[in-house]
Amino acid sequence: MAKRLIAIKASEAPVPPRAAGFPPGLAVKLEGREKRPLSDFFGLGNFGVNLTRLAPGAASSMRHAHSRQDEFVHALEGRPVLVTEVGETQLSPGMCAGFPAGTDDAHRLVNRTAEDVLVLEIGDRTALDRVTYPEDDLIGEADEAGRFHYRRKDGTAI
Fold first, then answer.
1. pTM for this one?
2. N or C, which end of the chain is more exposed by having fewer CB within 10 Å?
3. Distance, CA of 5 to CA of 84 (rounded, Å)
């Protein structure tokens, strides 16, 4: 039986080549984001943990809200701006925020500073989740296995 690693340095985990499966035309909005899916490295299936670095000017995602999945973010380094339905909140290291499923509180982090930002993102992987993107012509729907498929808001394929 092959021996598996039980611990790694998070900053050395591999970065996938493309932005979270987003359609190529929208993935460009996430340039400057480096997301390391730590939970995938260990084969965890019930929840996801990402170590995400945002270069100056980068965003963590397009503003979005989940129907069935909870999300939690914790600022480790830098000062990202948390953009939500109620406005903007400046975060600093040690601050955190949570987004319960089904609240329609679309959110994202933006780095408006000249320094990198480092955040820990944690979310569950509830199947059949639906993600809405109020500022973009995009809807994501997770299948039974939790894989997201994207389409336009009118239902047409991307």
1. 0.90
2. N
3. 38
